Each structure stands twice: as structure tokens, then as C-alpha cells.
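User: Please predict the structure of the protein below. I'd like the answer in C-alpha cell form so I can feed it into my own downstream comparison script.

Assistant: Understood. Taking the following sequence of 329 residues as input:
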Amino acid sequence: MKTVKVYFVIFAAAIGFVVSAVSLGRTHGGQVQTQKAESPAKPAAESPVKPGAESPVKPTVMIRQPTGPNTPNTTPNITPSTSIAFADAAAKNTIFRDQLAWTFGGKQQRGWYLYDSLLHQTLSTQSSTATSDFAAALSTWQDGRGFSPQGILDENAFMDVVSFWQSNRLKDRTPATPDQLITAPASEFYDPERDAELRQVERNPYAAYKRMLAAAIADPILKLDHVAPDELAPTEQFFKIVSAHRSREYQEKLRRESPNAGSAGLAVNSPHFTGRALDLYVGGDPVDTRDSNRAIQVNTPVYQWLVHNAERFGFRPYFYEPWHWEYVK
């Protein structure tokens, strides 16, 4: 009897052990499955997918709305970006600046690079002529003047600018009378040995010149040597007067001596007759119209100062001659 009870206990214990093992196995398997479900899916590139089969895992992609000046415009009723058009204009201006063929005063010209400073002043921009910003500024100016606002300085467009510059010059070419003229000191001339009759200036532009000279001397950028607030040192050449009043007879003499100067260089009806035009020394050969010489002159600090400041004192430029300034008040 005791033997039967012992076998029964051993049998019951064995059944209990088997049941516990099965239960434990099921519980552990459920935990593994739960962990797999909560783990992030591996990227498709890391999944063991057979070649040619579509991955069951789809990657997540963040989509951003494209922005920027060169992005195609998908907003209704908005025109395409104008920067593209001005970029094309800038490319053409880069070529025309050095290669444009045009004629002035009976002389063939090439490019408009000599007039960069005047263009910047006229268009109220300091952007390089090779940029879209310059083309945009030109377009704005053209539109305001009633011209085609393409932002391109081809021959016709550049001649529009030249016409504008010329329209701002001295209108009244009436020769000065003796009572309107004064004789400036020899020390104020580039050539101090110039004859007294060739040192005459109309009194109003002379007074304006002295005020402008004082402002230039006071500007530390120019570093002009001087002996007084409105008087240059004998050794200083910049800003001194090269030529002022010229009589009609003297102008005709110059024309005979320079038969190839053309009307651009020696006008038949010169503003120098009025005594209100001053040739100032701005560098290089004082009054040489060769491009190589003018390229030196337009890049001197004195010339660029005049471009930005001379009008405050009543003087406006003759675009073709960097040294020539006319009193228009």
C-alpha cells in the first residue's frame, strides 16, 4: 500500500513539472514576440530581401517645400523670379562693357568700362557691372526714364545714358565778358607758368571751385598736400586747374594744332568760352583722350571723389573727358 502511494506522489510531481515547463515556455515566447513588435524596423537596405523583391519595409521621408530664388514658382498669380532675367542681362553686360562698338564725336569707341564710376553714380548703385544687381538698377533707371527696362547696356541703351549725361551739361554757351572774369593765381594751376590770359575764370565757378577744393583737402581719403584749408601745396598736382577760360581764337588755334582731335576732344562751340568750365588734374596725361590714359584717370581717388561730390558745388562732368567739369548753377 505504501509503495502505491509513493508511485502516485512521484507521478503527480512529474506531471506538475511538465506543466510548469510548458507554461514557462509559452510565457517566454510571448515576451520575445512583444519585444519584436516594439522594436523599430530596420531600414530596407539592411533587411534580408531577395534580389528583385520589394522590401516589406517602407522608409519614412520628410518632404520640405522648396524655397529660394531659383526654385520653380508653384504659387498661383506670381510671376517667375526676375533674377533669372537679370542674370542673362548681367552676362551680356559683361561682354558689352569691354567689347561694345559705338561711335562718339566721329571717333570709334569700344566698350563702356571707362564709365563705370559715372554709371554707378547715375544708377545709385555700387554693384559691379557684371552682376544681376547692376542690371536690376539699370532696369529701374530705364523704366523711370521711359526706356525699355531690359537692364542691358547695348549700343542703343548706352547712347540713352550718354544723352542723359550730355543733357546735364552747361546749356548756355554765351562767351564770358571781360568783367565776368578774374585771373586766378598761378599757384592754383597745374602749369604755374601759364600765361595770365589763360588763367582767367568766371568768378562764380571760381568761388565754387575754392569751396570744393576746401572740401577735398579736408577729406583724409585724398591726402592732398596743402598749405591752407583751400590752398594746395606747390608740390601737389591733383585738383589743380589745367585749363579754364579759353577764347574762341585760342580754341581755333588748338584745333589747327590737333586736326585729328575731333569734335569730342575740341568742340567748335566750347564751354570753355564761357569761363564756366574747368579742366582739373585727375592723373595721367592731363588732357589726353586715349583710352589707356583715361583708364588711369577714372580710377584715381580724385576723379572718383569728383564723381560723387562735384555736383554739391555746382559742377557736372563731361563724361568723355574725366578732367572736364562744368559749372551749371
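That's the full C-alpha cell string. DSSP finds ten helices and ten strands in the chain.
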